[in-house]
Amino acid sequence: MSTGARGEQPTVPAAEFRSYSGQPILNKPVWGSPDIPGYLFLGGLAGAGSALAAGAQLTGRAGLARVMKLGCTTAAGLSLVALVHDLGRRDRFLNMLRTFKPTSPMSVGSWLLSAYAPAATIAALSDLTGIAEPVGSVATAVAALLGPEVAAYTAALICDTAVPAWHDGFEEMPFVFVASAASAAGGLGMLAAPLAEVRPARLLGTAGAVIELAVVALMQQRMGMPREAYRQGKAKRFSRAAQLSSGAGVALAVAGRGRAATTRLSGAALVIGSALERWAIFEAGLSSAEDPRYTVVPQRQRLERRSRDRPGRSARPPTAGWAY
Amino acid sequence: MAADLAVDLAARLPSLLERTDPATASGWRDHPPRMGFFTDTTVCIGCKACEVACKEWNHVPEDGLELTGMSYDNTVGLGADSWRHVAFIEQPRRPARDPGTEATCAAASGVADAGIRWLMASDVCKHCTHAACLDVCPTGALFRTELGTVVVQEDVCNGCGYCVSACPYGVIDVRRGDGRAWKCTLCYDRISVGDEPACAKTCPTDSIQFGPLDELRERADRRLAQLHAAGVGDARLYGRDPDDGVGGDGAFFLLLDEPEVYGLPPDPVVTTRDLPEMWARAGVAAVALAGSVALSFLASTAGRQR
After folding, report:
1. Which of B168, B204, B198 is CA-nearest to residue B46?
2. From CA B84, how far away is CA B121, in angstroms rounded?
3. Domain check: are B302 and B161 in the same one?
4. Which CATH superfamily is domain A35-88+99-299 in?
5. What does the alpha-carbon distance between residue A186 and residue B96 come to, in Å, rounded to a whole number?
6. Which of A30-34, A194-198, B18-22, B215-219 is predicted least confidently?
7. From residue A83, how far is each of A18, A35, A38, A137, A245 by CA, in Å?
8. pLDDT tens digit sequence for B30-74
9. If we measure between CA atoms, which residue out of A54, A121, A75 comes closest to residue B289?
10. Among A133, B257, B278, B300, which is 20 to 30 Å from A315 by CA?
11. Do B264 and B299 belong together in one domain?
């Protein structure tokens, strides 16, 4: 039957690979695109954006604050729509709040969102209408406190699965996600805020993009064999496009300091780069679930390591005389 | 009173790593013994009566009648509409390395040497001690029964699909056109009134055995020793070890080759084992994000004053 990829330099020691007629071991995630990668992106944008909005309000940057509040409310609303749309039984979306389970990142996230989204919405409405400004300020603060958690918890959400390209990146994924969130939020600020107020957004957005690209590379380096899922097919194309877009965004921000056109363009590139990175991670997960190699090879390597560490216990009982 | 409450709460905390009875860990008191399956694949004849009995009893809908060309297997794998799946593996004999062992093997398994051996195995939900599907279910639709099994409440499930991504065995799936997640219930309706599950009841060779897990494990150990004594050196138990990555399976197997040959993961681990660390890292990342936002304002303000 099939063996590991040949013909190219192996990134891990060649491991014998067997499967049942090449069938996947895992069932493919039923999560769809654009709902779920879109949610990962929008949740990040909103979460980091609310912190940016509060900072802008505190430092007297009313224009940046308004842009971020509106952006966050829109993003939060769209992400709720995406989440409900992705359910098999949409009429039962309220069952998400039927219980609270710390063992389920989706349960924790549902409670988090049900506190965050109203706060972000009240903050934006109050800012727009000028009604109940003290309430708006409290809502801005609440959204800013919950926002970073909204941006970070989605990493636990996708890593708490059996999907190799997600689970095996769990150490770095939260940092990838918050950096990507910072890049998207900063990008939105650069894109839409008054030019005189964009400086913090530019700092946050460019730093986020640079850190995101660096930590993604680190994550893939460390996760072992499942990294290959990021380096082929749709994931590879999204990943390349994310690098190009975020890279261009950073370059424009650095080169064209202060000029209107470059700032707007740079902001758009950062927002798009962040979204593309989420799609790359999403697609890598799907393809790693579809191919039994990603399940079998790392688990075999783990067993071999364990039997080396504990001599006398063989990882492989003999398979006398039968070929595969 | 307060102490009672504390004990009660402690008992209900999710048992992520302890080696314990799963029903007790889920808060059941005075519950019956943990029930499970021992599937001895050495005596499976590939009749698929288990697949049929399961579909009939549980009203599992038809999900395609295509011929796959994968030996006699047209079910392909477990999913929302296949709660038992019989795998067929045709293995050609490879050039003899040790003719002595081979002869013993063939004689012990009673297989005439036709140059091929045919492995058959009926797969099913493992009803893990540490069940990832149950841990990640956000609605509480998946629950641990008093018998230690894992069951979906179809009137609660909202089809979020988290369990599908979490299961390390590829068992549970969302049913098309229905939107909810479905899997083997270990015939909860039958076993809770003392009957045996439909698949075990119908299995003509007793390849599928149902009973209290402790008894099944003892029986499996005896069967393994018997096979090893008869020279079938490649016989091994899968999912029997309470110290494996899922705390042992409620449905375990006797196999004649490596698990992956049957479509089973060689070293499955419940993903929630790593969740405490994931939460810790997400927390650090969130603080880092808040800090970075603050820094970007501090740096901007400093720059503006300059």
Report:
1. B204
2. 10
3. no
4. Formate dehydrogenase/DMSO reductase domain (1.20.1630.10)
5. 66
6. B18-22
7. 37, 7, 9, 28, 26
8. 999 999 999 999 999 999 999 999 999 999 999 888 999 999 999
9. A54
10. B278
11. no
| CATH code (residue B25) | 3.30.70.20
* Contact call for B117 and A296, based on CB within 8 A: no
Residues B114 and B240 placed together within one structural domain of the fold: yes
Total domain count for chain B?
2
Question: pTM of the full predicted structure?
Answer: 0.91
Radius of gyration of chain A (CA): 22
Residue A222 one-letter amino acid: R
State yes or no: pLDDT of A12 exceeds 80.
Answer: no
Q: What is the distance between the alpha carbons of residues B30 and A291, in angstroms, rounded to a whole number?
A: 44
Q: Which residue has the tokens 């470059």?
A: A262
Size of interface A-B (CB pairs under 8 A): 291
Taking the alpha carbons at both ends of chain A, their separation in whole angstroms is 6
SS3 A255: helix
CA–CA distance from A292 to each of A226, B63, B263, B270, B272 (Å)? 11, 23, 8, 18, 21
Give residue for tokens 């997600």: A166
Residue type present at position B284:
V
Minimal-distance CA residue of chain B relative to A186: B293
Give the mean model confidence (pLDDT) for residues A258-283.
Answer: 97
CA B289 to chain centre: 38
Residues 6+ apart with CB under 8 A from A178: A44, A48, A148, A151, A152, A155, B285, B286, B288, B289
| Structural tokens at position A282 | 């999403």
Given a contact cutoff of 8 angstroms between Cβ atoms, the answer to whether B11 and B25 are in contact is: yes
**Which residues from A are below 8 Å from B179, CB to CB?**
87-89
- Token look-up 């989605």 returns A154
Residues B290 and B233 in one domain: no
Predicted confidence (pLDDT) per residue in A125-172, tens digit = 999 999 999 999 999 999 999 999 999 999 999 999 999 999 999 999
Tokens of B188: 């909860």
Q: Which residues contact A191 (CB under 8 A, 6 or more apart)?
A: A264, A267, A268, A271
B94 to chain A, any CB pair closer than 8 A? The answer is yes
Of the residues B137, B292, B304, the best mutation for testing chain A's interface (the one with the most A CB atoms within 10 Å of its CB) is: B292
Residues B244 and B270: their CA atoms lie apart, in Å, by 10
How far is Cα B231 from Cα A66, in angstroms, rounded to an integer? 77
- CA distance to A62, B5, B9, per residue, from B2 (Å): 52, 5, 10
| Residues in A touching B236 (Cβ below 8 Å) | 317
- Are B170 and B306 found together in one domain? no
Note whether B211 and B252 are same-domain residues. yes
A47/B289 Cβ within 8 A: yes
Distance CA A318, CA B102 (A): 12
> Which residues constitute the domain of residue B59?
2-269
B285 lies in the same domain as B194: no
